[in-house]
Amino acid sequence: MKKTLITTALLALLGGGAPLAFAQADHDAHHGGASAPAEANAKLAEGTVKKIDKSAGKLTIAHGPLESLGMPAMTMVFRAAEPGMLDQVKAGDKIRFAVEKVGGALTVTSLEPAQ
């Protein structure tokens, strides 16, 4: 019995932290580690707002390639991550934006006027 407890304790000490370390490494690799803001800014897509549907929380954007998703240029409807984003733009505005899959839906997670 005592040997089992010691073995269990050793396994917990040796192996218990490994999944956390791997999870952190995976998280850092996915989010770019410390350089994430600069990298995210470089990966913003450019587009033109075609339509805003505030009641549905969506906007239609004619956009260039979405490299982060491997998608070519086209016009698509996206969900807005925050309802306030829809108040920041109007049809015809040129924008830079980031898109991620959130809950299976393509979602605009950041939005700024194009320079």
CATH class of the largest domain: Mainly Beta
Strand count: 5
State the share of residues found in helices, binned by percent.
25-40%
Strands in their spatial order, largest beta sheet: 1-2-3-5-4
Low-pLDDT windows of residues? 7-14, 16-41
Number of helices: 3
Query: What is the total domain count?
Result: 2
Reported CATH architecture of the largest domain: Beta Barrel
Radius of gyration: 21 Å
Question: DSSP strand (E) fraction?
Answer: 25-35%
CATH fold title of the largest domain: OB fold (Dihydrolipoamide Acetyltransferase, E2P)
The 3D shape can be described as globular
What is the terminal separation in angstroms? 69 Å
Mean of all residue-level pLDDT scores: 77
What structural category characterises the helix and strand content?
alpha+beta
Corresponding CATH superfamily of the largest domain? Copper binding periplasmic protein CusF
Sheet of most strands: 5 strands, mixed, barrel
| SSE ordering | HHHEEEEE
Signal peptide: 1-23
Organism: Thauera phenylacetica B4P
Keywords: Signal
Protein name: RND family efflux transporter MFP subunit
Which descriptors apply to this entry?
globular, about 120 residues, CusF_sf, OB fold (Dihydrolipoamide Acetyltransferase, E2P), 5-stranded mixed barrel, CusF_Ec
Describe this structure in words.
It is globular and about 30 Å long. The chain has 115 residues and is α+β, with helices and mostly antiparallel strands. A five-stranded mixed barrel has the order 1-2-3-5-4. The chain has two domains: 30 residues; 74 residues, OB fold (Dihydrolipoamide Acetyltransferase, E2P) (Beta Barrel). It is built from three helices and five strands. InterPro entries: CusF_Ec, CusF_sf. Pfam families: CusF_Ec (PF11604).
